[in-house]
Amino acid sequence: MSGSMQPRAAGVSRRAVEVVTASAFAAIGIVGLWDSSRIGAGWGTDGPQSGYFPFWIALIMTGASLFTLVSAWRDAGPDETFLTRPQLGLVLSILAPATAFVLAIAWAGLYVPAALLIAWFMARLGGYSWRAGLLTGASIAVLSFVTFEIWFLVPLPKGPLETWLGY
């Protein structure tokens, strides 16, 4: 087969990603325009109102998103693969635990989820034993706790374990 006649690899197309991303950013921009107008996006007697700058940023964001959306729809060229299924699996192998980490911070604090995230990455993606991952994760969490909470006196989110320990 010639280079231009090869079938597109199975996966998410570049055009689909551009359309979804541009639509999402346009929606966010429209919300920004509405909210800026709600709080005042004009020029008052004492200068710009509080929504003036956000209004213009949202307008530029919406305009650029709509331009990207129209360009993606009008592009008549061959649709390229943006992401194949195996590549998506690699992305999700990072994104899923990272998302779980962020969500866990709300109820477990920062240190325990961080230790577990480090252990997970070491064991699942790095090929280390769970013992090495858990030991390293716990060590880094304890070092971070001592550094921020005790030495620098910077409070970070804490969970039940830190409360139980008296912090």
Automatic annotation (TrEMBL):
A Pfam match: TctB
InterPro entries, per database record: DUF1468
Record's keyword terms, sorted: Membrane, Transmembrane, Transmembrane helix
Residue intervals passing through the bilayer: 12-33, 53-73, 94-122, 134-154
The DUF1468 domain, residue ranges: 22-157
Keyword Nucleus: no
Top-level taxon in the UniProt lineage: Bacteria
Name under which the protein is recorded: Tripartite tricarboxylate transporter TctB family protein
Protein source organism: Salinarimonas soli
